[in-house]
Automatic annotation (TrEMBL):
Domain DUF2231: 7-156
Transmembrane segments: 12-35, 42-63, 83-104, 124-144
Superkingdom classification of source: Bacteria
UniProt keyword terms in alphabetical order: Membrane, Transmembrane, Transmembrane helix
Name of this chain's protein: DUF2231 domain-containing protein
Lineage of the organism: Bacteria, Bacillati, Actinomycetota, Actinomycetes, Pseudonocardiales
Keyword match Transmembrane helix: yes
Amino acid sequence: MPVFLNGLPVHVLVVHAVVVLVPLAVLATVTVAVWPAARRRYGWLAVAVTAAATASVPVATSSGEGLEHRLVPTELIRQHTHLGDQLLVFVAGLLVAGTALVWLDRRSRREGSGATSRLAMKSIVAALAVATVVLAAVSAVQVVRIGDSGARAAWGQTHYAAPQPEKADD
């Protein structure tokens, strides 16, 4: 993967997919986890968005590693890299939990099994819904932490001047 595109780091471009897709996946999976009607109607769409978010994470980390090797190593860059490397675990877990939730929910609606089996299936679906919400929350927090650490690494030494009021012509 190229490190630069027309002089701009590819990581800066690619990371926007993660910044958009992971929060969108979080919103979609939480919605289908807590709202059974949305799960029936939009469950597979939420899974598809989460799959796209999951796929975007390694692309962002790969482009970030290429850029990292061209920068002076600092503690802020190391922290950003460390946090970024953790995101795939959380978002992939969200994908697995969300997929299992939607699949089992669909399966339980199709099969007319006994009361004990229905109760067990409802319990499993409820546990998966809770796991999905927890993984969504962790993924959202991690994206914010990564973005903040990346901004600090890139802009931490930049100081802005307060705007000066314009003088009126007398």
